[in-house]
Amino acid sequence: MASECEYKRQATNLIKRYFRLADQGRSDEQTAALENLLEKIIYISKRYEWKSRVEESQLSKDVSS
Fold first, then answer.
1. 64: DSSP letter
2. How far is CA 25 from CA 13, 20, 32, 40, in A?
3. Are 26 and 34 in contact (CB under 8 A)?
4. What is the mean pLDDT of each run of 10 residues along the chain (65 residues)?
5. Can you give the pTM of this predicted structure?
6. How many helices and strands (H and E) does the chain possess?
7. Which residues are CB-neighbours of 17 under 8 A, at least 6 positions away?
8. Which of 6, 11, 32, 55 could form a disulfide with 2 if both were Cys (CB 3.0 to 4.6 A apart)?
9. Where are the beta strands (DSSP E) in the chain?
10. What total number of domains does the chain contain?
11. Exposed (0-12), middle (13-18) or buried (19+): which is 17, by Cβ within 10 Å?
12. Residue 18 belongs to what domain range?
């Protein structure tokens, strides 16, 4: 699994790309590309959030044992 740093790097790069494209005039194709980037950003965020919860849960179980 990717580290927290890797998730942050991926999300940061996608956000930078999103805003770079958003600053330009957009065609329908570019608007669709922006929506796709936004979906990727959300996916990465949720994946990291899920990974963090699993790790926290595992730590709680380890401490309880």
1. H
2. 20, 11, 13, 22
3. yes
4. 73 78 73 81 81 76 68
5. 0.48
6. 2, 0
7. 37
8. 6
9. none
10. 1
11. middle
12. 4-64
Instruction: Look at residue 9 in the predicted model and tell me its pLDDT.
Output: 82
Contact 20, 34 (CB under 8 A): no
**Mean pLDDT of the residues in the chain:** 76
Q: Which of 41, 62, 44, 56 is nearest to 2 (CA)?
A: 44
CA dist list (Å): 23 to 16, 38, 51: 11, 15, 33
Cα dist from 1 to 7, 29, 35, 36, whole Å? 10, 33, 26, 23
Residue 57, judged by CB atoms within 10 A of its CB (0-12, 13-18, 19+), counts as exposed
